[in-house]
UniProtKB/TrEMBL annotation:
Residues 1-26 are annotated as: Disordered. Keywords: Methyltransferase, Transferase. InterPro entries: SAM-dependent_MTases_sf (IPR029063). This is Class I SAM-dependent methyltransferase. Residues 7-25 have a biased composition (Low complexity). It comes from Streptomyces beijiangensis. GO terms for molecular function: methyltransferase activity. GO terms for biological process: methylation. It comes from the Bacteria.
Length: 272
């Protein structure tokens, strides 16, 4: 999807905002993000009058929207999911997967929901990766403006089978946190996650930028925790993150660290 401000002059009113993505998707690709959302935002969804979630830019197949609904309902049984895609053929292909609580619509960054509904969650995974860094702030602002009070935007990137994932969580006021998540058995060093940084950060992984310093410290703590590898990758990760917490403003605890995650305040990693 192209940034909202790049719409050509004369573009027809009502046309979805954005451009078609590659659409690459696989079953279970977004499981780490989904589980984090259910844990971090499930209570807010469960208590909402309209527990609506949007899977924005779900791709060539509807797997991620189907799975998002199942995982959200572990925390919020009344949750609904709307999958939104800018490519009409993808929406048509997904219609056969519709059921109670799951629908698919044609649209883009304008997030066109019937009846003026505003979602408690917008998930945009692997959508902004193809855009210029300068476009990100405008897209974030536009999507956050569509959220219901207390809503959450989760935007990030993962590899093709979901082993490595980094995402930013945003509220109506803007960016809040950055989460790094990985399959621990496949990790050589934490900085391997750098290739999955979201567009707002991936070009900032250079000396002098906070995200570069964070990944440098992460690698150093990982190396210092090498003796714990004999107890398993999970114990090494937990020891590493506990050391990291002495120097960086982490927002989670060992319950999430055990899942191969760590979440840090956005303000600590925001580009300079």
């Amino acid at each position: 999807m192209a940034p909202p401000h790049s719409r050509p002059v004369g573009r027809p009113v009502g046309r979805p905002v954005g451009a078609v993505t590659r659409g690459t998707t696989n079953p279970n690709r977004l499981r780490r993000m989904d589980r984090w959302i259910a844990a971090a935002h499930g209570r807010a969804l469960a208590s909402a009058d309209d527990p609506l979630a949007v899977d924005l830019g779900y791709g060539a197949a509807p797997w991620t929207a189907v799975e998002l609904l199942a995982r959200l309902r572990t925390a919020a049984p009344a949750a609904e999911v709307v999958g939104i895609e800018i490519e009409p053929a993808r929406v048509a292909a997904a219609k056969s997967y519709e059921r109670e609580g799951l629908t698919f619509l044609h649209g883009g960054f304008e997030v066109p929901l019937p009846g003026g509904r505003r979602p408690m969650l917008i998930r945009a995974a692997n959508v902004l990766r193809q855009y210029d860094e300068e476009a990100v702030a405008a897209v974030w602002e536009r999507l956050c403006a569509r959220l219901a009070p207390g809503g959450l935007l989760v935007e990030g990137t993962c590899d093709e089978i979901g082993r490595r994932h980094v995402w930013v969580a945003l509220g109506p006021e803007g960016a809040r946190t950055v989460t790094f998540a990985t399959r621990l058995g496949s990790l050589e060093r934490p900085s391997d996650l750098a290739e999955r940084l979201p567009k707002a950060l991936i070009h900032r992984n250079v000396p002098g930028e906070p995200v570069h310093a964070f990944l440098r410290d992460f690698d150093r703590a990982w190396a210092a925790a090498a003796p714990y590898a004999s107890l398993g990758a999970r114990q090494r990760w937990i020891t590493t993150v506990r050391e990291l917490s002495a120097h960086w403003p982490l927002t989670d605890d060992v319950r999430r660290w055990r899942q191969g995650e760590v979440t840090v305040n956005w303000s600590a990693l925001a580009p300079r």
